[in-house]
C-alpha cells in the first residue's frame, strides 16, 4: 500500500494536491474519514487507507520523509565473479550471517527498460535529475510505471531469498529463450526442497486465481502459463527438471498467503504472498520433488553452464 509505483499516493487517497497547506490537508483527512467510515456506509478498506495516508503525511516530519520518495531508485549492487555477476543485498556491517549465493541482477532488465521509456516519455531535451522522483513516476503512463513496479518486486524477492542461507543458490533475470529477449525467468532458486522457477509481480491491484491462472482487472495475458513454458524451455536446455513454479505477489494483493494451484502442464504451481515466500522455499511445494545429495550439485553445475542473463 502506497509503496508501489502503481498504487495511489497518500495525497491521492486524501484527495489533495501535493502542495496543499497543512490546514487543507487536515480538512481533507477529516472529510475522507467521514466519507469512508463503515458506520456511515463507507468502505472499510478505504477507511484503513485514509488512516494510513494520514500517518504518512499528517505531520511535517512524516510528510517531508514521504515527499523524499519511497526508494523507487534504490537498487542493489553486484560485483563480477568469474563470468557471471554476483548479486549482494545491502546489509548492515554487523550482519555476518551466511547467505544464499546469488547470480545476476534482480530487476535490472526492467529498470533499464523503465529508464529508456521514462526519458522517451518526458521528451527530448528534458532534464531528468531524478527519473525515480515519486511525482514523476506516478504521472507516467501505466506501462512505464508497471516496469518499475515489477523491478521493485524482483528486488524485494531477491532480498528474501538471499536470507535463505548458504544451502541455496539463486539466479536472477535469466534469459529463457535465446530467440526472444523478452522471455525471461525472474528468478531460479535451487535448494534442498527443490528447483523453482519464480515470477515476481506487482499488478497494483488485487489478484485472484481461476483454473490454474491469475485473474484480475490489471492482469494481462497468462502469467502462470508463460512462467511454466519458460521454465520447461530452460529445463530442456539445461537438462534439469524444475520441481515447481512460484508466483510471488505483494501481501495486500492476495487473499491467501499460500495458494497451491495444482499442476499446470505437469508442473506444480503455487501463488504466495511475499511474506510467505521463505516458508514455501524452505518447506517445499506439494507434489514437488526434493533435490538432495549429489543431485543438487549436478543440477547446480548444469545450470551454471547453461544460464544466460537477460
From TrEMBL:
Species in which this protein is naturally found: Microbacterium oleivorans
Protein name as annotated: Heat shock protein DnaJ domain protein
Keywords: Stress response
Lineage: Bacteria, Bacillati, Actinomycetota, Actinomycetes, Micrococcales
Transmembrane segment boundaries: none
The organism's place on the tree of life at top rank: Bacteria
Keyword DNA repair: no
Chain spans, region Disordered: 80-105
Alphabetized SUPFAM superfamilies for the sequence: Chaperone J-domain
NERD domain sequence ranges: 149-257
InterPro entries registered for this protein in UniProt: Diphthamide-biosynth_chaperone, DnaJ_domain, J_dom_sf, NERD
Keyword Coiled coil assigned: no
Domain J: 9-70
Amino acid at each position: 500500500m502506497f509503496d508501489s509505483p502503481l498504487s495511489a499516493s497518500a495525497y491521492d487517497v486524501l484527495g489533495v494536491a501535493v502542495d496543499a497547506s497543512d490546514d487543507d490537508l487536515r480538512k481533507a483527512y477529516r472529510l475522507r474519514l467521514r466519507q469512508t467510515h463503515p458506520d456511515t456506509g463507507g468502505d472499510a478498506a478505504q477507511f484503513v487507507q485514509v488512516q494510513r495516508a494520514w500517518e504518512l503525511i499528517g505531520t511535517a516530519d512524516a510528510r517531508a520523509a514521504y515527499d523524499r520518495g519511497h526508494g523507487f531508485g534504490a537498487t542493489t549492487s553486484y560485483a563480477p565473479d568469474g563470468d557471471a555477476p554476483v548479486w549482494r543485498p545491502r546489509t548492515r556491517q554487523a550482519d555476518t550471517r551466511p547467505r544464499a549465493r546469488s547470480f545476476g541482477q534482480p530487476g535490472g532488465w526492467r529498470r533499464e527498460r523503465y529508464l529508456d521509456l521514462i526519458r522517451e516519455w518526458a521528451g527530448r531535451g528534458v532534464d531528468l535529475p531524478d527519473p525515480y522522483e515519486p511525482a514523476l513516476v506516478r504521472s507516467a503512463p501505466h506501462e512505464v510505471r508497471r516496469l518499475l513496479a515489477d523491478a521493485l518486486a524482483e528486488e524485494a524477492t531477491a532480498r528474501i531469498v538471499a536470507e535463505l542461507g548458504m544451502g541455496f543458490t539463486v539466479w536472477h533475470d535469466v534469459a529463457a529463450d535465446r530467440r526472444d529477449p523478452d522471455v525471461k525467468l525472474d528468478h531460479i532458486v535451487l535448494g534442498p526442497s527443490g528447483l523453482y522457477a519464480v515470477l515476481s509481480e506487482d499488478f497494483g491491484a488485487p489478484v485472484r486465481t481461476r483454473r490454474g491462472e491469475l485473474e484480475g482487472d490489471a492482469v494481462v495475458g497468462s502469467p502462470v502459463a508463460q512462467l511454466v513454458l519458460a521454465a520447461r524451455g530452460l529445463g530442456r536446455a539445461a537438462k534439469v527438471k524444475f520441481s515447481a513454479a512460484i508466483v510471488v505477489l505483494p501481501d495486500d494483493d492476495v487473499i491467501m498467503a499460500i495458494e497451491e494451484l495444482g499442476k499446470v502442464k505437469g508442473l506444480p504451481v503455487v501463488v504466495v504472498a511475499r511474506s510467505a515466500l521463505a516458508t514455501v522455499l524452505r518447506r517445499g511445494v506439494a507434489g514437488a520433488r526434493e533435490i538432495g545429495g549429489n543431485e543438487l550439485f549436478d543440477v547446480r553445475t548444469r545450470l551454471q553452464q547453461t544460464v544466460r542473463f537477460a
